[in-house]
Amino acid sequence: MKCKYTLCIVSVMLTLFCVSLASCGYSSKSLLRTNVRSIYIPIFENDTFRRGYEFELTKAIRDQILLRTRLDIVDKDEADSILFGKITRVDENVLIEDTRDNIVESRVSVGIDIRWVDKRTGRAIVDRKNITAPAEFIVRRFETLDSAGEESFVRVAQSIVAAMEEDW
Asked: CB of 83 within 8 A of CB of 61?
């Protein structure tokens, strides 16, 4: 008798769980446009004095697109779309100094403009300005401007992928 009650309770709980999932609107459907299957990503332009950042940022964006989307990264001739981008600013702000004016904690912020273009029509799919992503670093933890820059590149790459997703 006890087994029947347990089985009944488990069935009711499983049914409630399935109903709640179905009603929440969860979906495994991609958030990107279905008519775009491939993308070409040239090295981003860099309007700042920080050389080399364009290569690191482009790599971070490629990694995030491979990780978070179904898009294939291909050569320019094979692509359905092209993601153009430009680093517009890199700001470093000191947050905390010690009594000898040595930096204890600082923040780096990277600003990006992107334009994702459907190569078949020439029309912009997404055109966003001033996508930013700050990252802090603490000198006493042996963190540096470079390590904070890498973290900021990953964050801005995640923001770019989010911007590429269709609005709901």
From this structure: yes
